[in-house]
Design goal:
globular, Aminopeptidase, 7 strands, alpha+beta, binds coenzyme A, 4 helices
């Protein structure tokens, strides 16, 4: 696999949109905890990505995508705090890799690319949360993230089942 990771600028967003929507539905409809219940339609995913575009327009969000043979196979977002006291921090959001491309180091590469982007923008403090027990926890710990704590029952499923979320932070050197 020879995926290439790049930031998406506003002019390139429209061409990436179908691939981004497909990436999100693939993840949600195979059980990933990304804020949505399955089944997720392509139309709902497009609506979500249009919200992301608004944050990009306001320069609050940097979107990175991984592409393989012209297809979007992964993405991660860096959400820049716009608080006066928060110009040194950012949130890592919605790291995801297409199911067909998992287990080959792409998640780790996307996170590394987000770190480079954060560093370039002077955002040395990174925070994120992930469903307790998910694969993301091992990835974040192996990338130097510190577990700040767990909030039990943070998310709720259609059947009423609740899951905890684990909050991590990382100081870039
Ligand atoms: C989490 C995710 C992005 C990892 O992507 P990936 O490309 O498969 O990850 P990598 O191949 O780079 O693996 C990096 C590390 O993640 C961990 N990991 C990946 N898949 C795992 C699994 N199925 N079980 C446990 N740990 C796993 C391992 O620590 C792995 O390191 P190793 O290969 O040295 O053991 C991917 O599983 C995904 O998109 N999941 C759905 C969305 C999601 O839950 N995102 C995180 C929430 S914010």
């Amino acid at each position: 696999m020879t995926a290439r990771i790049r930031p998406v600028n506003l002019d390139q967003f429209a061409e990436c949109l179908p691939g981004l929507a497909s990436l999100l539905t693939d993840a949600v409809n195979t059980g990933a905890s990304l804020g949505f219940w399955m089944p997720m339609s392509q139309a709902d995913a497009v609506l979500y990505w249009r919200e992301v575009l608004q944050d990009m327009v306001h320069e609050r969000l940097v979107l990175l995508v991984a592409e393989d043979a012209g297809e979007v196979v992964g993405s991660v977002q860096l959400v820049l705090s716009d608080r006066q006291n928060g110009h040194h921090r950012a949130e890592i959001r919605k790291l995801m890799v297409r199911t067909t491309h998992r287990g080959h180091g792409l998640g780790r590469a996307l996170l590394s690319a987000a770190h480079v982007e954060a560093s370039y923008r002077g955002r040395g403090l990174l925070i994120l949360d992930t469903r307790t027990g998910d694969a993301g926890e091992r990835l974040y710990e192996s990338m130097g993230y510190t577990r700040a704590g767990e909030i039990p029952g943070y998310t709720i499923e259609p059947d009423g089942a609740r899951h905890g979320t684990t909050i991590f932070y990382h100081l870039l050197r």
